[in-house]
Every structure is written in structure tokens, then in C-alpha cells.
Amino acid sequence: MSAIRVVFFKELLETVRDRRTLAVMILLPLALYPLVGIGFSELIATQRQQADQQVSRVGLAGPEWHELRRFLLDQPLLGISDGANAEAIRQGRIDAVLQLPRRPEGETERPLTIELLFNASLDRSLIARDRLRDALKAFSKRLAEQRLAARRLPATLLRPLAVADRDLATKRARGQRLIAVITPTLVVLMVLIGAFYPAIDLTAGEKERGTLETLLAAPVPRLSLVLGKFLVVSTVATLTGLFNLLSLGLTVALGFGPAFAKAGVGLPSAWSFLAVAAALIPTAMFFSSLMIAVAAVARSFKEAQTFLTPVYLVCVVPALVAQVPGVELGWGTALLPALNIALLCRELISGQVVLGPALLAALSATGYALIALLIAARIYNSERLLFGGRRTRLANGRQLAPEPSQAGLLLLLVMAGIIFVGQAFVARSVIVGSLVNQWLLIALPTLLLIKYARLDPRTVLSLRPASSRALFGAMLAASGAWYLVSVLVEQLQQRLMPLPPEVLRQLENLLVDRQRPFALDVLALAISPAICEELLFRGVILSASRQALSTRSAVLLNGVLFGLFHMSAYRFFPTMLLGMLLALFVVRSGSILPAMLFHLLNNAITLAVARIYGSKTAFGLLVFSLTSAAVLLGLFFGLRRRSIGAAPAPEET
Known about the structure:
By secondary structure, the protein is mainly α. The protein has helices spanning about 1-15, 20-55, 65-75, 85-90, 125-150, 170-200, 205-210, 210-215, 220-255, 255-260, 270-295, 300-320, 340-350, 355-380, 385, 405-430, 430-450, 455-460, 470-495, 500-510, 520-550, 550-565, 570-590, 595-615, 620-640; strands at about 55-60, 80, 95-100, 110-120, 160-165. It has a five-stranded mixed beta sheet with strand order 2-1-3-4-5, covered by helices on one side. Strand 4, helix 5 and strand 5 (about 160-165) form a beta-alpha-beta unit. Helix 19 (about 470-495) runs antiparallel to helix 23 (about 570-590). About 40% of the residues are buried.
């Protein structure tokens, strides 16, 4: 037993000693999964809200019934039209039709049967059916009350209407809808399984076998090397998906075919499965390139498995979201990675494909694959990222810049703390919660990392004097950026992913409390983020990423991480743009002070405008012209050239 205990503690110590493995095992799930859950819950809420607010197109057929028509016209979510029929529903021009009966002359006591025509294979038609049922129930109740109030009559008048549903969906349409619910998840799982181990073997596996150095020494461009590996992984992933899809199709046709026939449900056509097979190509391209990029930074097969497991699980979530009723393939969802492919597969099988969003989904998935490939190529061009390099230190022994793994570990630790600790304080008090988040959960871990990792704070945090030109440019740009980013960009985002009105009201009530001193709002929501968030993002994270990436890539990554950090799909694009702009000020000026000033003024002006005008910010041409001019002039002065020369080369030890 003593030998077992020694081996156990030895292996356990070696496992937890590796901070990258420890971060992926503990901190990454704590920060990543809640982040994904928050994002997709907001997406589902938006899709449901759009479905709930969408007006149902309803047709009236049969004899004219003026009283019913007036009642339906008063319903806010029903659009009434005449001359509709069953064919209009099948073609998608009408969501549902009420077939009105002919009423016998003088007959008012016998209940009338209104036939409700709908298509169960379409979500819009199902929503219209439910709305019409509720409206007819209310109309029936009103008729009964009117008749009972006028005179005493038999109890049958309490039920003047009876609705008989008639489903216009064909057997094949019902079968397509049933299969379309489960197929996207299976397709994503198939391709992910096919790409998982080949991506690890061709990257981290080669490092363990010692063959990667020989391959890199060959006279082959690194991009060609990555493309060759990508083609292998994507081919294996595509074939895995095709064989699994073929097996699924045969299982459905041979195994479930008799049961479906007995239940009156038809099978999807062979063309639907062929279309899904074609959609496997961009799916395999995206997942293969993503896994190659992630696995390339791993130092061993085991570490690559640890890195890719969260990626695998996160990619499965969009496929599960695609099963939620009301989430459809539109112009907005067609741009969301993984979800667009899952929704595309669902629409292809159900036979309800809209050409524009379908093409956009395929193109965006291909575009994301190319981006991931370029990232992988940069990793293969960086010996530091690919194999890990030695740390550069100053003469006093301090480390010149943090390792990317150190910065990533810090970010995960901060996000986990905010999710599991900070949110509880915010729920009780916005001011107290913001101060706790900024100073205790962001600034304190950042400063502790600098101290215990022996980092040089002046270099890591860009704590250098800034020129008056850079400070003036930051101040001028911030005076207009609050409008362009916080208003115009958010309005553009509202067209793709609108913020529910109740969420907007809650956010406004949360942040704008006119009974609270404005100076307290500025301290907690403007000054504190301007200091603490800048130390983390434009200090440690930007410094670490610039060691491994080009300046443009580091600025882009900084903006993306800053957008994800705010944990809201609705605020991602505005905060991402702000993060990139703040990183540019640091890069061009050589100092973090202009970014802090910009951050402070942007938040303070936004708070002041929200307190004065609420959510009713003016959209006049004059405001747009003035703010645009301020931003352009600010960028001209602040980003025209470096205000401070480059730091002297460090002395290595």
C-alpha cells in the first residue's frame, strides 16, 4: 500500500503542477460553460421574443362574419386577409386559415364548427394555430356573455363555437420535422468525433514522437504544412460524418420505416440526406481547423486532449440549441459559429430552406474555418507558441512579459470569480458589486500575478508617461465614441439580435438610479473599470499576446476577449470594438494612460446621458456629425504615430 500511495501522490503532484492542465480542468469549465450558457440563453430568449412578437398571417374563408372579423382585427398579433386557402398555407404565404361555416337562418342556439387549417411542419403555422385557438375561445366566451345578458336561453349557448383542427402537413413533412429535431446534434457529434483524434495526432502527437522538428526543417512553407494537415483532418471528419449519416439514413429507412408508416408519418426524401451530406463539408472544415489551431499549442497528446475536450463540449451546445422551437435560421443566426450549421442541417431535412440565410451560413462557416487556419499557420510560424520559449528577463531578474498561459490562467480565474462570487454582490447592490468585481476580483489577482511571477510592472502594464497628443486624442475620441459605439452599433445589433424590452428596462433601472449620487456611479462604473479592467486587458493580456502574435492579431484578440468578458451576447460587438480601440491607443502611444482616460470618459458620458435621457437618446444628424468628427479627430491625434519611443531591448539572463 505504501508503494501505491507514493505513486499516487507522485503522479497527482505532476498532474496538478502543470498550470495549463490545471487551468483547463478547473478554471476553464468554471468560466467557459457559464459564459456559453449565458450567451445561448440570451439567444434563445431573443429568438422566442421574435417569434412571440411576429404577427401571424391568418386568412378567413367562407361566408362573411363581420362580428368575428372585427374581433380578430383587434388582436395585436393577428394579421387578417381574405381569399386564403389550404394551398396558401402549403406555399408559406399564410400561416393559418379559418374556414367559416354557413349559418342557418335564424339558428343561434346550435354550436357552429369552425375549421382551423394549419401546417404542423412549420413553427409559424403552429404559433398561428395556438393564437387563433385562444382568440376563438375568447370570442366564444364573449358571445355567450352577450346572449345570456340579452335573454335566458339554453346552456348550449355557453359553447357557441367548436374548433376542429385539420393538419395540412403531409406525412413526409411530419417525418421530416421529426428527423430534423435530432439530426443536427448527431451530425455535429459525428464530425467532431472524426476531427478530434486526427487533429491531436497530427499536432501534439508529432511533438511527442519527435518528428515535428524534421518536418519543420523541410523546405515547405508553414501555411502549406498547416493546409496539408487540415486537409487530412477535414477529410477524415467528412468521411466519418458521411458514413454515420449513411448509417443513420439506413437505420431510419429500414428500422423505423415500418413504425413510421403505421403511425402515419412519412420519411424524409433521399435528397434531404444528400443536402445534409453536402453541408458536412463546411462543418468538417470549421471543426477541423478549430481543433488544429487549439491542439497546435499543446505540448503533449495528453495536454491536447485536455485542451480539446472543452472545445468539443462547447461545440455540441449549439446543436442542442438548434432543437429549441422558435430558433430558426435567419440572417443573424447564420453568422453564429456551429449554430448556423446545425440550423442549416435542420432546415435541409425539414425541407424549409430559405436560400439567403442558408448560403450565408455555409459561407460564414467556411470563413471561420479560414480564420482558424490562419491562426494555426501563425502558431506554426512561432517557435515560442509551438514549442514554448525561454522567458526573457531584465537584469534585475524580473520577467519582461507574462507567458500567454499565465495571462490565460489569470483571465479564467477572474471570470470564474466574477461568475460565482461577484454576481451575488451585484444582485444585492450594483455599486457594491461593481467595486468588489473591479478591485478585489480583477485588480487584486492582476497585481498578485505581477508580484509572484516576478513581472516588471512598468513594462507589463505600459506604465509610461503619455504625450499630450495621445491624451488629447483619447479624450476627444471618447467624447464621441460613447454615441457611435453605445448607440449606433447597438442599434445595428438590434436588427440581428434585438434586446428584449423587459431586459432593456431592467438594465436601465439597474444602472440608472436618480436617487443615488452621480459621483458614486462614476466611481463604481467609470473610474474603477477604467483602472482595473485596463490593468488586466490592456496590461497583462495585451503584453502577453504581443509576445506571441503580431500587433494586429494581438489587438483583435484583445477586443474579442474584452467582449466575451462582459458575458452578454447583446453587448459583445460594442465592447469588442471598444476593446480593440483601447488596445490601439496603448500600442500606438506606448502607455496605458490614454486607454484609461478613454475608458473613464466613455463610461462617464454614457452614465450621464442615460441619467438625463434614459433610453431615449437622440439620433439626430447633428449629434451623429459632431460625435463622428470628434472620434475621427481623436484617432488622428492619438493614433497618428507613437508618442513614446519603443522600450529599450531587455537584457537577458
